[in-house]
Amino acid sequence: MTRTDHLSPLLEFDEVEPEEDCICGGCSARRRARLHAAPVHEGGHAAAHSIRRRAAVLMAAVGTAIGGGTAAAGQAAAAPIPGPTPGGGSAAAQPPQTPQGEVSGLYGEASGTRAFAAPRAAAQPLTRAQIIQRAQGWVDQQVPYSMGRYWSDGYRQDCSGFVSMAWGLGSSQTTWTLPNFAERIGKADLQPGDVLVYNNPADPQAGSHVVIFGGWADSSRTRYLAYEQTSPGTKKRDTPYAYWNNSGSYVPYRCTGLSGGSDDGTAATAFPGADTFGPGANNAYVTKLGRLLVQRGGARFYTEGPGPRWGEADRKATQAFQQAQGWRGAEADGYPGPDTWRRLFS
């Protein structure tokens, strides 16, 4: 018999009072047990009192353990699964740390429906150049990432607020509502100013992301220049298509208010992509590049043109311009990248 088994009758005697005038053996035994279990100051037996107190403590401890274990199990089940540790593992394996806020007006004012976005004036249509310039503005200012704060221009400082700002919407949207202001396109149609959207139904607010496409970085179209708002602040970086993770789930979109839609972009300052230039290239961007280089003093390299077909004159003129910026080595290889293109327009 265990100690608790031996003590159990004592606890039961406390709950059932014996009849004072009953002479049966059961009531007599219960009266004697009650006498021995009574507190010492009431005349009870000290040893019995100690046993009773230890039994009560033991039973309370058992109850706490059982109840506490159940509560702990419930809490553990309800606790959220922790996400990846920032900086832990490879960059390609980590999802973006980009929780986003709700649809809101400028500076966080309450918003209503999709119509809350202010329409653009017909006299000032949105251009690709404007989108990239606005995105670059946040890059230059290194706007800190925040899902609850608003930058000086009124837009929320998260990924969807960043795109809302670059697209000139009159409110901060979310990755789920941005497609309402855009048309879906294919990878082959991507041009600077378009976006790539990933929506995660399992974690809509913290697991979704959107980036601005800034142009292809290689001729195989496996890498591109991405403008994005992610912790700790706005970035512009060479990115694998479609993104570092969840690559197959990113969807390309184009803002419906974009001027020119699928135009060739020669009037815009947005970099068209590295594959636009080099041996075999034949397009209006090559002509635009040559004309800009001539304006910057590169006329001596051209015996004719500039024209749409890439040639050695274009490479030498580009290299001379790059070296004039103080660039050396790979930065002055004669092939324009985003920085060279931007400098030509600045």
Note down, in words, how this protein is organized.
With 346 residues, the chain is of the alpha+beta class. It has 3 domains: 3-74, no CATH class; 97-255, endopeptidase fold (from Nostoc punctiforme); 277-345, PGBD-like superfamily/PGBD (Muramoyl-pentapeptide Carboxypeptidase, domain 1), CATH 1.10.101. It has 8 helices and 8 strands. The strands form 2 sheets. Strands 3-8-4-5-6-7 form a 6-stranded antiparallel β-sheet. The chain has a two-stranded antiparallel ribbon with strand order 1-2. A hairpin with a 6-residue loop joins strand 5 (209-216) and strand 6 (223-230). It is elongated and about 130 Å long. The chain starts with a helix and ends with a helix. The model is unreliable at 1-16, 36-93, 113-123 and 261-267 (pLDDT under 50).
Order of helices and strands: HHHEHHEEEEEEEHHH
Number of E-type strands: 8
Mean pLDDT figure = 75
Tell me roughly what share of residues is in helical segments: 25-40%
Query: Can you tell me the CATH superfamily of the largest domain?
Result: endopeptidase domain like (from Nostoc punctiforme)
* CATH architecture title of the largest domain: Alpha-Beta Complex
* N- and C-termini, Cα separation: 93 Å
CATH fold-level name of the largest domain: endopeptidase fold (from Nostoc punctiforme)
Q: What is the tally of helical segments?
A: 8
- Major beta sheet, strand line-up: 3-8-4-5-6-7
Mind describing the biggest β-sheet? Answer: 6 strands, antiparallel
Structural class: alpha+beta
What is the number of independent domains?
3
Radius of gyration (CA) equals 37 Å
CATH C-level class of the largest domain is Alpha Beta
pLDDT below 50 for ≥5 consecutive residues: which ranges? 1-16, 36-93, 113-123, 261-267
Strand content: 5-15%
